[in-house]
Amino acid sequence: MQMKLLLGMVVMIVILPSSTVTVRSNISLENCPQTCGDVSVPFPFGFGRPECAKNSSFLLECNQSSSLLYGNIPINNISLEDGTITGIIYAVSYNCHRQKGRSRSVRNFKQQHIRLDRWIISPTYNKVIGLGCNNMAIVADRDGALGSACVSFCNDSADIRIDGSCSGLGCCRTSIPKHVDQVNISAFTISLNNRSVPDVSPCNYAFVVANSFNISKINPLGQWETVPLQLPVVFEWVIGDHQGCQDYCGLNAECSHSDAGGGFRCLCKPGFIGNPYLPLGCQDIDECKELNKYPCLGTCRNTIGSYTCENKTNKTTWPIILGISLGFTVVCLVIGAWWLSKMLKKRRKMKLRSQFFKQNGGLLLQQQLSSTKGNVENTKIFSTKELERATDNFNMNRILGQGGSGTVYKGMLVDGRIIAVKKSKVLDKEKVKDFINEVVILTQINHRNIVKLLGCCLETEVPLLVYEFISNGTLFQYIHDENEDFPLSWERRLTIASEVAFALSYLHSEATIPIYHRDVKSSNILLDEKYKAKVSDLIWGIKINCY
């Protein structure tokens, strides 16, 4: 055995210039024919000379008409991969119930046709078919034990159509039990409720046939002679036994146990291809020439029984890939840090706004608004975000005026109302309660000569006051700067003075709680679109008499 392997390796080294073996197309021994007609004959089978086959059990005959025969049995296919051989043999049992004496059962099916001890009727590649009316097809082993059966029926006037399914109408099918090397098949006519057998099928049949055979080619409705007496049947074959099985297999091949007759077959090892029964056996597959089966994105190198794939792309571009990965990681970290910083900043701002809101008496104002609901329905607590949006983040271009107490900005709310937002400079923390009371009281004042206080924002360090917008500026501007569009005559001056006096009189005597303006001056008197006077800046210059 060792000598045989050594000789095979020496021959391979001498013939082949490199480690890559080119797969031979030969399937038979050298100088032996490979085909008979259109049937390939791989070793261990052979014909022509006895030495072309493994032994006499595998020796076939190719006659003058190029038909492959085993004895008198035509052979139309041999498969090394499946371990099968297909023969055309006489395998029909029939029973003609209207023709006395016309009956036959096929007994010891294998022994009548195949003399090889290691061949079995394949249960995988064959089926048993029953054709006819009220017919039972029976499969038994060599001892007569029932293996399987099927029944087919007919209607009195049935138009029987045979197809591959053989579902029971004139045709049925069953399987061959596994591990059975010899079978008996029989066709019986059975009685159903004392009904006679329909005339549509004078004979019943049972036979073994290959799965690939088209049953619809058979016409069971005529005499029994119309059914082919010879049909294709597939046998599974093995070679030798496991004692010394490697003597039957060639180089780079291994033994594989088979259920067929308890023997074995030879198979190529992984990475090899060819006829495992030839002396040189199986030859190395060059996977690099079949990249559709063996993918490789880099450099493919064939090895005995396998191959390697070196990915050049990884070697040449890994710095680029690494750089891209690091760059992407850095960008993600920067974006993550920016987002985290933004979120922390936003959170700190929200926390600071909440702190200012409480510090500036926001909770007190909410409490007063809820306890005096209905009386202060016009009082509104504005948010910082709302006023920043209204004044374009307190843009310098929106400044209406500046004074000792703060800066006034022009703004527009979401609903379209024009407002004036006063950003004060300082608030005495000890007077927060008084401030909140003044806001609540002043938002209730609604007089044509007093600037209306709409509400406040307490989310900043110093509260923001929101007033109605007065379009024509202060009286101070008209007194000190001449204006041709509106000359300040004595008559107009007297009218403005009376309007201011009327407003102060209302605050002193007609308001619900007396209010005293302690900072009446021309810069705190505004003129509207009709140049009527409006007293402003009450919140910082008033005294509210609560007693």
TrEMBL record:
Disulphide-bonded residues: C245-C255, C249-C266
SMART domains hit by this protein: EGF_CA, S_TKc
GO cellular component assignments: plasma membrane
GO terms of biological process kind: cell surface receptor signaling pathway
Compartment(s): Membrane
Binding site for ATP: K423
Any one Gene Ontology molecular-function term assigned to this protein's record: ATP binding
Positions of the EGF-like domain: 241-283
Known catalytic reactions: L-threonyl-[protein] + ATP = O-phospho-L-threonyl-[protein] + ADP + H(+); L-seryl-[protein] + ATP = O-phospho-L-seryl-[protein] + ADP + H(+)
Domain Protein kinase: residue ranges: 394-547
Keyword Nucleus among record annotations: no
Keywords: ATP-binding, Disulfide bond, EGF-like domain, Glycoprotein, Kinase, Membrane, Nucleotide-binding, Phosphoprotein, Serine/threonine-protein kinase, Signal, Transferase, Transmembrane, Transmembrane helix
UniProt-listed InterPro entries: EGF, EGF-like_Ca-bd_dom, EGF_Ca-bd_CS, Kinase-like_dom_sf, Prot_kinase_dom, Protein_kinase_ATP_BS, Ser/Thr_kinase_AS, WAK-like
Keyword Cell inner membrane included in the entry's annotation: no
PANTHER family assigned to the protein according to its UniProt record, in alphabetical order: WALL ASSOCIATED KINASE-LIKE PROTEIN, WALL-ASSOCIATED RECEPTOR KINASE-LIKE 21
Official protein name in the record: Uncharacterized protein
